[in-house]
């Protein structure tokens, strides 16, 4: 009588479709970039509160509000990425769920962008003394905020991420949101650059200050405008691949970092160390010995509006 040999069942290999791995990877990259910018933001905020303790309470409150909104966004995004890499292994449908993205991306980004643009709008008002430019900037800023809130409501009702861009109405709303923010950022940078150039008296000290402010205005405005434009362009790619999520996840952090960087641009980091000793060279022309006494202290020099300076020693 022959023996019956029982074969062990072959292991079941569970493979997800390729687009699932692509979508999760894109979201993970965007989340990691969000974390990095969040850390940079906290460092900038720490330096701001140390260097400018006598700033107006409104500015301090604005910085605190931006930090609070950014913290809410980062916590929500982190919650989603943990859910994708835990529950998502057994239930791939979770990866396509909206989760907290309906408020962590459009709503938080719209609020933070509006807050940052309001800060620059105030600066524009002080610089230009023009109600026309203030009204125009405010109009585009409120337009992008209203569109961002609308996108958040649409995403909440969509339930799944693939449905967010599935209707023509949502695409139009996203287009209004991105275009309004883009135009507002470009307008702020252009207006401040134009009026700062008009204030240039030609004196070296004034010219250097004006040049630094112009460069800062162009840099901060171009970064936020470029990222908003890239995010908007990626949304309208054929098939709507989720590459836009990377830009969308870091757009709010870009606004916050640019605003606090503008506030911290008043800081001058100087060293009070003595001049280094001259290096000694041998006859062969090679460096034989170099004596250098390193910096012992670093001072934060705050440029006050009155023209006086005060120092904070770190």
UniProtKB/TrEMBL annotation:
Coiled-coil residues: none
Residue ranges annotated for the DUF6534 domain, each copy included: 182-267
UniProt keyword annotation of rRNA-binding present: no
Keyword annotations from UniProtKB, A to Z: Membrane, Transmembrane, Transmembrane helix
Matching InterPro entries: DUF6534
Keyword Transmembrane helix: yes
Superkingdom of this protein's organism: Eukaryota
Pfam families linked to this entry: DUF6534
Membrane-spanning segments: 24-51, 101-120, 132-154, 174-196, 216-237, 243-263
Name the UniProt record assigns to this protein: DUF6534 domain-containing protein
